[in-house]
User: What shape does this take?
Amino acid sequence: MTPFDCTKDQFTGVCHKRRLAGSAASGTTAVTSQRGNRTMRNPMRAIVSSGTALFIMMLGCSLALAQQTASASLTDAGLAEKEYDPTADLTQFKIQDIYTPSQYGTNAQPNTLQLRPLLAVRPQLFTPLEQLIRPTIQVVTVPRNKGATTTTALDDFQLLDLFVMPWPNEKETLFRWGFGPYFVFPTSTSQYTGHGAWQAGPAWAFSFRRIPGLNIAGLFQQATSFAYSSSHSVPLSSLQIQPMLSYQLGRGWYVKSSDSTWTINWRHNTSTQIPLSAGFGKVWKFGEGYAVDTSVSGEWMAYRQFSTQTQQFALRFQMNLLLPQLQL
Assistant: This one.
């Protein structure tokens, strides 16, 4: 309410209201002040709104650029080619079943169900190199004797930790290599499976892609026992060599010879096994962030020495979930 001053007429006695000058001035000042505050608030709101919109726009552009970069690298590298590169930074979850219809020294038909994920880790502060962590878990069905009796149990747990070297320049030489430790833990749940020994040793891998569509790679793992979980365990020292050849046919199809593992035991009168494999597969791409690879291959024992019971022929059925954009 605006204050008024009452002045009585000396003849009629009627009170005439008159607005005070100071009050009017203060009212005008208050209105002007409110308008000024509104005027000051509007630019601040405009600045905040503009800044927020600019931040969201920059964030959206950054995400779009990152997705385009990831998509471009995914298309150029080729998922199927990177899958059989032991040094590739490709996160994957592999499940394969190895069925052996024919085996030397027994009438049984062994089987192996293998879970082998691979986790790609970006260079970190304390580890300035690309890191590949690959555990292996196996449930095996093995013969008990020369007959057809079998036992199904958990096998020894394996862990490969590979560090990829940044030199020589991969873009110039198309050559990658890495090394790291390899461990075997005695986790078998049956006397017919596993070796009952703690094992450790070095591992080395390489990949060469000079010829378009052809990937030549290899993985070497040396394991030597240093402790034992059973009094019946024997000392072990073995080298596992996995040669890998794959060729891209186009549209995700490929042929390969990448599944066989050569095992050379260094101790006297111990076994040596050199199998050969051949197969084909296809990568099914469902989006930019993931794909699924399916493949079938056969494996033959080309050379064996001091091996009383070992596979003669085996079939591999594999399914692999590929996650190229998933890295730690």
Residues 69 and 275 are 40 Å apart (CA to CA).
